[in-house]
Amino acid sequence: MDAALRQVAEGATGFMPPQEGLALYTAATAIPAGGLICEVGTYCGKSTLYLAAAARAAGGTVVTVDHHRGSEENQAGWEYHDTTLVDPRTGRLDTLPFLRRTLEQAQVEDVVTAIVGRSEQVGRWWSTPVALLFLDGGHTEEQAQADYSAWGRHVAPGGLLAIHDVFPDPADGGQAPYHVLLRALDEGFREQSRTGSLRVLRRVD
Fold first, then answer.
1. pLDDT tens digits for 67-105?
2. Deepest of 30, 70, 109, 114, by most Cβ within 10 A of its Cβ?
3. Is the CB of residue 64 less than 8 Å from the CB of residue 87?
């Protein structure tokens, strides 16, 4: 991975450990030339940069989808609430300006397109096959399943599905992404690699 881009990625606001970020990058570099990478759950763009680096290497494109109002765990009173991301004008979380700064700093706007909207709404009208889908959106059971339902069907045959924050043991973290993993394994995906909480699967049906 480009050293300058990796430095920006590691310094960006977010929850992707460097080891998992590099594993995501490695998986994404395997997409076909000109392939499309889709990320569900952008936050401030940390993981987006690992995907952007891979897209640039493969001659591909990244589309990243988020409503930018934060997941449940990002709201006031929850563990991952960050007051610096709150818009003082509205009092609501707004990560979109921070994504813009991240993309500008990394100079990856030529390979990244940001879509502002709820993933299940965007996924409803989406029609382009996806070479790699990265799921890292809401971590409630309802939202995680909705993200997979909306986007899993768009993964091209032989394409990749990456799921973040997969914790089989409830003592380690929430179970929603793990349940998505189990569902994907039942619906034509086969596990390809594990790095920390990141799982990479390939569609084989």
1. 988 676 665 665 666 677 777 887 778 999 999 999 999
2. 70
3. no
Sheet strands side by side (includes 112-116): 112-116, 61-66, 36-40, 130-135, 155-163, 198-203, 189-195
Residues 6+ apart with CB under 8 A from 181: 163, 166, 191, 199, 201
CA 67 – CA 54 distance, rounded (Å): 24
Does residue 68 have an active-site annotation? no
Catalytic residue among 67, 68, 139, 164: 139
Q: Rounded to whole angstroms, how far apart are CA atoms 176 and 13?
A: 23
| Residue with tokens 């990141």, as numbered in its chain | 198
Q: How far apart are CA 64 and CA 133, in angstroms?
A: 10
Model pTM above 0.70? yes
In angstroms, rounded to a whole number, what is the distance separating the alpha carbons of residues 146 and 155?
Answer: 15
CB within 8 Å of 158: residues ≥ 6 apart: 202, 203, 204
Per the structure, the count of domains in the chain is: 1
Range of the domain at 103: 3-203
CATH of the domain at 135: 3.40.50.150
**Comparing 100-109, 113-122, 167-176, 186-195, which segment has the lowest mean pLDDT?**
167-176
Q: What is the mean pLDDT of residues 140-161?
A: 97
Cβ within 8 Å of residue 175, ≥6 positions away: 141, 167
